[in-house]
Amino acid sequence: MQRDVHRRENTRTSLREFRRAPCKQRAWQVALLLEPTFDLGEEEGSRSEVLGVGCWGALVKDKQPSVRCMIEWVATRLLYRHPECCCEMWSAIKDNSEQRTGSICSLFAICTHLCKLYEGRRLEEFMESMLVEILPWTMMQHFSVRTYAQVALCTVWTVARQQNMLDFCERHALLEGCFNQVATVESNSTKSVKKLMESFWFSDFHPIADYSIEVIFYILPWLCLLAQDEWIHPDLFADINGLTWLRGNHSGDLQLYSPDSKLRTAKPGDWRTKLGEGARASEPVSVSDLEGNVQKKLIPWRSLMPDHTEADVTYKRQSGAQGGLVLVASLIDKPTNLGGLCRTCEIFGVSEYVVGNMKYVEDPRFKSLSVTAEKWIPITEVRVHELEAFLQRMRREGYALVGAEQTASSTSLCDFSFPAKTLVLLGNEKEGIPVKLIQLLDACVEVPQWGVVRSLNVHVSGALFVWEYTRQHPPVTTTTG
């Protein structure tokens, strides 16, 4: 009994950590490996915490397709082993829809998979609940939600006919007839439903038969369009001692390779660019093999240190004393503008970012725009009344003082050459730079305009200055780890 309680607690703790992990993809892959050891327990509170914290809550926050697929897979397998917990999913549909409507698409996907896995009386009870819970969403205004709900109900009728569930079909003959009549109408909606049902996730993937290291770490990342350096070939796992123990504790359920998996010849997600002429659709390909441009998110620290993980990297900019660009935003008082500028400064390697009050850095509105940039860039507090003395000190240290302002003698940003050691002062959103501070500057530079509106937002103006300086003086970055 004590061991079971300890196991349930470890399950809850593990799932909490998976949601916090910086590499969510890898964390949920590990969750899939450990899923057979997760015990939902018999207590309703314990089940709610494991599923609610570990799966339903994560679906609200995670929008990346590859991560969502992993979460859906974990939840599907858990509910397949513990069908008595399906009531938790019906509650999650309501709760998740209030937080982020699109997240319930994943819950409908889980229902679709379970509909194909359950059998007998359990299947009939589950499909009865699906009709009650999902039918209203088939008329939802949200396009994706409506499409996933219709796919789930299409699966209900398909499975019912395949399983020869005559009583079920007879009870719901009117509903099935209405649903089929709508499905025969040629429209963008019905085309989307058909297209989704034909996708690899619903036509080729099997949550039980495809439970293998090959699918978890290699095939599914490829089908979900992760960069090639995220694919791990199953051969690399063959000689791992710990893996032998893990597979033994799965009672043979976890395999290295999937036997005759349809996924090997499946078509990747629709958001993928078509393959080049020489590539075979049955094999993962590198980005260089694809025809045309392909979206690829940049991970700066990885290109600097390819042999290190994110946790190993200590990222250091040039300090302000060593030169570079110092951006002074002390006159700005809107947290959103300050947060956006912070993000821009971090991305383009600004040496020092100056704000009027450090309280802005803790403001939720600042953080929503900075997306953690404040952790990776030096931020200094210089209050408005201290600016005059600060500018004079920076001039003594060899900085050229440049104001982002339109004046009678200002220079166009297109024509201005930034010295290596430059301080850029941004003005207030409404008043700009006070006259007494303009008199201290070495130059005023303006962004050329051709429109009717009087000026740009200060965040946009600041970003243009940061980019132009960076273009002229690419930043120096070093890493240690």
Automatic annotation (TrEMBL):
Keywords: Methyltransferase, Transferase. Residues 325-466 form the tRNA/rRNA methyltransferase SpoU type domain. The keyword Transferase applies. Gene3D superfamilies: 3.40.1280.10. The keyword Repeat does not apply. InterPro entries: Alpha/beta_knot_MTases, ARM-type_fold, SpoU_MeTrfase, TRM3/TARBP1, Trm3/TARBP1_C, tRNA_m1G_MTases_N. Pfam families: SpoU_methylase. One of its GO terms (biological process) is methylation. GO terms for molecular function: methyltransferase activity. PANTHER family: METHYLTRANSFERASE TARBP1-RELATED (PTHR12029:SF11), RNA METHYLTRANSFERASE (PTHR12029). This is Probable methyltransferase TARBP1. It comes from Priapulus caudatus. The gene is LOC106811809.
